[in-house]
Amino acid sequence: MTTTARPVGELIRQWRERRRLSQLELSIQAKISTRHLSFVETGRAKPTSEMILRLTEHLDVPLRERNGLLLAGGFAPKYPSNDLHGPKLAAVLAAIRRVLTGHEPFPALVVDRTWTLIEANSAVARLTAGADPALLEPPVNVLRLSLHPDGMAPRIANLAEWRGHLLTRLHREATVIGDAMLFDLYEELLGYPGGESEVPPGAVDVVVPLRYQQGDQELSFISITAVFGTPLDVTVSELAIESFYPADASTAAALRV
Questions:
Q1: Alpha-carbon gap, residue 24 to 121, rounded angstroms
Q2: In this predicted model, what pLDDT tens digit does every residue of 11-27 receive, in sequence order?
Q3: Structure pTM?
């Protein structure tokens, strides 16, 4: 859980500025006076736990950070963070595994908010074959595995384009969440070789594809990201399912062999 010694009002102001909202805009959304919001942000007024939760809801603050703001305000955390493999999240894990298994023979995997691999179906091994075994040792970071020169990168036919897509997405997520670990990962991946794409995304394809060279055959994928709706658990809120679908008939046929 994120904890901090900074005052809760200062943290609320930081999230408001990160979302590029004025005090007036946030106060209208949260149905409080601008004066009261100003007092909360400057520490002249102590917000209740209900006020903190109301503001963080309108600021779309992740559940982990909402708990941190409650702690900074002197209140107990509201959202639990259960073990995915524990009894309380058994139904969630079962649903994830049904999705992964049902997606075969196409690759699908589950990652947490730092892009650490949580679960994967058997088809993913087809893409990771040939990677340095050290990169496959848990915990596996799938972005590092994808872009590392000893990972999947040498077999990605459109590496510059795919690299640009992943870096843009990672930087956006780091900015939205405000997670230092994601910024550190971004800086690490930025230093990997791979070049910059000269073709703007969307100039050729409808979506940015992953073109993966397997022997003398090129497999082409489009990806879809899915998250759980209305999560009330920190662990569940940070999970994402990345599913890869064939972008052409030849890829579909090759994967069904």
A1: 48
A2: 999 999 999 999 999 99
A3: 0.89
Nearest-10 crossing angle of helices 8-18, 34-42: 120
Alpha helix positions (H), 104-158: 124-128, 142-147
Pairing of strands 210-214, 117-120: unpaired
Sheet with 108-111: list strands edge to edge.
117-120, 108-111, 240-246, 217-226, 210-214
Q: For 186-236, how does the pLDDT look when each residue is reduced to its tens digit (9 = 90+)?
A: 999 999 998 775 555 444 445 789 999 998 999 999 999 999 999 999 999
Instruction: Report residue 168 CA to chain centroid gap.
Output: 12
Q: Which neighbouring-strand residues pair with 211?
A: 220
For the stretch 91-97, contacts whose Cβ atoms lie closer than 8 Å and that sit 24 or more positions apart, written own/partner, are 92/228, 92/236, 93/119, 96/239, 96/241
| Residue 163, both tokens | 């690299």
| Position 16, amino acid | R
